[in-house]
Amino acid sequence: MICLLSLPHRIAQLITIMMCVSAAWFSISCEARNQNTTTTRALDSPVKSPAPRFIPHEVLIKFKNGVSPERIASILKNNRIDVIAEIQRGRLYHVRIGNDRSVESMITQLTSYQEIEYAEPNYRYETQK
Fold this sequence. Notes:
Layout: H1 6-43, E1 54-63, H2 69-78, E2 82-87, E3 92-96, H3 103-110, E4 116-123
Antiparallel strand pairs: 1-3, 1-4, 2-3
């Protein structure tokens, strides 16, 4: 004969056991899913290094208003700079510097001239896909 008082206790035990088994199964399945993700990433092609933020050996130089074309030519020649393009009616220049100089050091030198408003790297901009 089944004792009616112990029936709720047995149901509670059964529910507790089922919850423990479900939690263990869920935990194991999550670990397996994470391991599969890691394995898949390991088989993917190697991660490409990001492209440089600016184009090597290229600088944008903006001269202040009123600087003569002769003075601009003199500054560019003295620093061994080749003009790629002249923008904004002779005030902004897209230039190429020699391989023996870094963009950073050239910018430091150029900004020391009082005739130059600013000099900056030729930054790369990409649209998001």
